[in-house]
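Q: Structure for this?
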Amino acid sequence: MSVLARFVDTITASPTVRLNINDGTTWRLLAPSRMHPPRAKRSRVSTLLVDGAVYPASAYDDRVLELQLRVRADTPDLVAAQVQLLARELDRPGNLLQYQMPGMANPVFFRTHRLGLDAIDIPSGGTVVDLAVSVPAEPFAYGLPQTLSSVTVNNNPAHATNGMFFDISGILGDVETPLVLRINHADTVESWRRQSVFAVRRRGTPSATPFVLQAEGMTQGTNTSVQSNDATMSGSGSNYSRCTFGTATMQTRLTTGSAFHPSSDSVDARGRYRVYLRYRKSVSGDTITTKLLWGDVNAPVTNDTVTLPSGTSRRYVDLGDVQVPVGADAATDLTGAARSAIGNYIAIQAARTGSGNLDMDLLLFVPSDDRLALIDLYQFTGPTYTWVDGVNDTVFATNGAGATSPRVQSIAVGGLPMVSPGVTNRIFVVGDVSPSAASDDITKTMTIVPSYLPRYLFVRPPSS
Amino acid sequence: MSLPIPLSITLRTSRIARRITAQVRDLSYRTVVPGGYASCSIGLDRPLTVQPDEIGYYGRLLIHDTRSGRIAWEGRVEDPGRSAGADGQVWDITAIGPSAHVHDRRVPVIYVDRDTGRWQHSNKYASGSSETGRTDLDDGDEPGLTISAPEGTTTPDGWIGDLLYQPLKGTGQSLARVAGTATNGANSPTTWFNEIVTRQSDPSGSPVTPVSSGWSTSPTALAATRGGSPAITSGHDLAYLRQRRDGSSGTAADGAWVQWTDVVVLGQRMDSSGALITSGYSGVSSVTAEEVIEDLLGRLLPLYDGPGASIEAAPFDIEQLAYPDPASPGDVLDDLMLFHPSFYWAAWEANSSGLYRFEWREWPSTVRYEADVLDGMNSTGSADELYNQVTVRWRDSRGSIRTVVRTGAVPILDAAGLDRDGYINLGDDLGMVMAQAERIGDEFLADHALPRNAGSLKVARPIYDGTTARMVWPWEILPGHLIRVRGIQPRVDALNPTGRDGVGIFRVVAVSFSASDATATLELDSHPPSVARAIADLADRRTR
């Protein structure tokens, strides 16, 4: 079996072959050919003030595929026709080179860039021509697209299954790869424009991420008490807290008391989190301001004061970021082992000008130290699917056949989700953090089909 | 870190919002105080033969931190430059941050005006024999305005002499308060009256007399106030100081005059949401910086989130702040910082309504960032900005040129036995009052008592951020905060700072980040001297 090297049209198991450059008859890929792995570009900063250097950032550069080709045909004209075919393939703005080494079970695909021929060596006779081509290509070789099982994400963090998250494990490839999420569009349609949050935790034990803190489980503060069950609130039994603002000035309404969040120290507590409060006002016109305090109970960090929008809907409000642990973090010991991190004292303060109450359901701690995107979703009916496409770095909609739908553009800010091989990747989904949301509904679901292209530095092992 | 820099770049126009992170040639951006997000440059390969949907004048350029979704920089495209050459067809795009909005308009505006030169003799209602003028009761120390009936002239019933104040007509503002102290040449409580009269200019309205007081040789404080008592009618923008005779005809004696001193006019202000402030002017003859900023936000800075702005109190009563010549909000803010050099303003990211967050705040006295010199530092540490004396030139309300010299202790100069004298020209907008000139001089000296670093610190690794209690990367560092730098002369005082100390604790006045080397360059205390900076300063200098 010889090396499989073909210019093809798609990354599929049976693509249309445009030019086979190692068919063994007309074309041969000669032994000096090299499929160099991508080099890493680094920013290097060094002074004489300290030994060594620091590398603030690095990224893989394009790779160069050095192809040594031989084309053989009965006549020089036929040889010229074959060389022309190659030139046309190389002249494409972008191309796909399928590559599979002998004995390997799976091919990989290189996305190549436009270029010309390096050298043409024509021995006398003209029926055999040797060609040298240095093909620039994207850093990673791609495996066949992987479409994962559909998941149903529940918009209730207390749900027993996929409560505002879903896990992906067994990612193929050598390096991280962007996710493509196909979302049932009907799950995103509302009478207002939803803003959804997609965040990623893919280190340690993602299930140990301190994602939710129920208000009714916190120490109730000034004018605040646990309320009996409300089906629109998350959790069972008495499932939210109400502040009646007997003292309307800025007071502490909820705290973790003498405990922390998370309650147990662990390496998985470590990280930065964007904190959302799920709340409901009873009087729309009330001016209620809130702020989050966190860290050391003796000298907590105070986040910015946030004014809750008007309306009596259940909504999420962004209270800013927290860091676990607070302060300077010696993340590892001398051996390099990760130190556990102790959680934070958490407190919610609130003040009111008006007459109504503030109901507080829960706090979400959305990881914001890896990948987090806020996406304005398209709110009208029409498309079948909404796609969060990390490969093309865009959000768009299609019909059932995959045709891109015309619609008001969805806007994404931040980093679209990426997943890594060899770990469990947890994708957190907060359905709607829009300040104009009519109401957040914990019974809603989002049906998502994730897919991705495995990425390789060289070629693909059979099981990865 | 050794991972790709976690920043994403988006260009957004009315046609499209496109994420272009993987397509840009390079990225560099700059934040400064005062100002906030200042400028950003990217290079983008696009054909020159078509207008890309994502590139357009005043389109938005947004840079987000991909880890948290937070804004790292944003602004509007002002220079979509195009080039074709060895690198191909490249759009070199420069975006300007929301700080540029403060220079979008130039309008006249009056906050508080003591300039007696803006009161003019008016004949609209006045009698032909009336005379007016600017005088001084105490040889330069009590400037005032006089209205008189020349001795011996016949003054019939209803005789009027008027001085008119009309600069508010040009600003679009209404009167908030007119006040002054009237002293007469004779006592005549029932015949002669000192009055404050107001009316609307457009459409022309009838005069209203909120204040009418009988003559007295004792100084009498009089005032009319919008929303107060006596009240100025809503919408009135013309003010008269009037002398009026009520009674049978008579002959003017030697004392048939009134002198008005401490004359002050307040223009009606807006709150930060743009609503007119209709009360609260009673007994007030000054403005504060925060009141002026609220007015700027409500009146002239529609792109900033006025109601959501963070405005710290800067307690000092500004007694003269008037711009009958058009000025930009940036000019006004620059002047406010003359009174308060320990404050700065900045405009940052937009909210969900597209309005930029604005803040006016005092330089903190606590250190935010902790860094080292390991990645590189340079400092001129020049004594060029040290002054222990300053001459402030101003013009009083009579129009006379005045100067006042203020002094302060500067240990470095005092130890060397040197006196260095700075100079400040307040022109017409800020002068008029000795206390104001003294204040500006004292603040100048306080700000020039320690050597400025006037250098830069390079940061290529995470540093500690005491405000967010975590390590931050170079692209997250913000100006407007203090930084303590290790690797410089250690001093115990650096552990208990009250502000910059010129040695180890500095103000971060600007941060420039470049993605090409993933490092941030922090400018400390002041901008490093350069030809470009000197030219920019000359261009910014206003003629007073």
